[in-house]
Amino acid sequence: MSARSAPADEELSHRQILVVFSGLMLGVLLASVDQTIVATALPTIVGELGGLDRIAWVVTAYILAVTVTTPVYGKLGDLFGRKRLFQVAIVIFLVGSVLAGLSQGMTQLIVCRGIQGAGAGGLIVLTQAIIADIVSPRRRGRYQGYFGAVFGASSVIGPLLGGFFTDHLSWRWIFYVNLPLGALALAVTAVVLPASRRRPNVRLDVVGSLLLMAAITCIVFITSWGGNEHEWTSPRIIGLGVAAIGLLAAFIAVERRVTEPVMQLALFRGRTFDVATSVSFILGIGMFGVISFIPLFLQIVTGVSATDSGLLLVPLMLGLLTASIFSGRMISWTGHYRIFPIVGTATTALGIFALSTMGPDTSFPTAGVYMVVVGIGLGLTMQVLVLATQNSVRSADLGMATASVNFFRSVGASVGVALFGAIFNARLASALTSVFADGVPEQVTGGSVTPQLVARLPDAVRADFVAAFSHALTDTFLFAVPIMVVGFALTWLLRDVPLRSTIHADDRARELAMASAQGTAEPETFGDPTAG
What we know:
The structure is a single chain. The chain is mainly alpha-helical and 532 residues long. The protein folds into 2 domains: 14-192 and 260-440 and 447-531, MFS general substrate transporter like domains (Growth Hormone, Chain: A, Up-down Bundle), CATH 1.20.1250; 205-259. The chain has 20 helices and no strands. It has helices at 14-36, 42-49, 55-80, 83-101, 106-134, 137-168, 173-176, 178-192, 206-225, 235-257, 271-300, 306-311, 314-334, 339-355, 364-379, 382-390, 398-435, 451-456, 459-491, 508-517.
């Protein structure tokens, strides 16, 4: 039986799953690489286009677009099927890539990164939901582990590719390279992805979707502008805060009344769902905030090239890849998952704290060890939260629940990158003022500070500037530590619900009937899906 012809309610063989998996991973590769591929190219991009004060928005625009579209894709997949929607997301992503490569100014680049993110949001969440459509939670651990490994590897491959293209071709090629990969992804998915069911007579929650998008956009503007471009007590920041609260209140009111809400509020009655989304939010803050700024530290403080700064992130990738595969296999073997997020969040907090102790004299091997620790922590946590959530919901809500976990992680990432960007800018301004008592040199006060410019500074000025830059960045890392400690505390509330051996929660009765007919013991016991 081919992957395409398998019934929707029949689990595929390992070989068939790998065929489907190959198409899905191409989409994930596109989306996840572009979350970080600009990191090592940012100094060069800023040097050509200007706008150091908006540097965080090149990353934030992408993550923000992923964030606001993720719940929409999740719900649309539940309603209309996931295959065609997955292919539409690829096309949107490729259009954004072409336009980003042609950008002639920072504002244009930021807008085009938003278009990319609007496609990437579908690629990430639909991949996880499609896997859940064809593999039971008990077996899903090993495949989610591979997914986490690809996602994690891409987080490091992205900066590496970004550095290579920046050094040897042009930063514009970090976007053009998506075109052949995207074309291959379209071709493969057209052949291998199984068709999914479409619900009849559905109505879209357009109002709820727009309200949610607007509310999240306000929140990211607050974290980006507050304390940076505007005082926290300024009318604009206060106005955005009031608008965000009002929009969220309106969103909740709408979701209570519509037939097919974009985010099912009943899901929040379950402890598993609540803990998973909360920890995902915190993980997003720490993960993307740190990874986005490590290449900046390596290039400006240690003076390595863009390519080398990407290579120096390999330890983080190896830690994440190994831990993700290990945790996935152990979960499939034991049927239990609770211990992994507990250990993972504690390890991540420890690794980020270690990064906050770095300075201009920190050796590369030492920095590598710190990054391995961070990678292991992330690998033990990210995909486990998705798996736990999928195990606790009905098949009708699978896409929405999967999207919600990703949504909250993306919200955290948007807030984290914007917040850490604001903190870094504020700390850098303070550090420069402190170091240069007679006035900050004109060379480093503009919006286009690049590794090349720093290398050309007079020795005395360069040493003081690098010290100030290093201090500002490590202070920024330190802000992430208490946030991760909160995530660690929350993971202790996660219930260790045994994983089902059927694909969906709806299949529980059939599973019990089969066990009874075969004279075997009850295969699994798990709680009410709505109870978490």
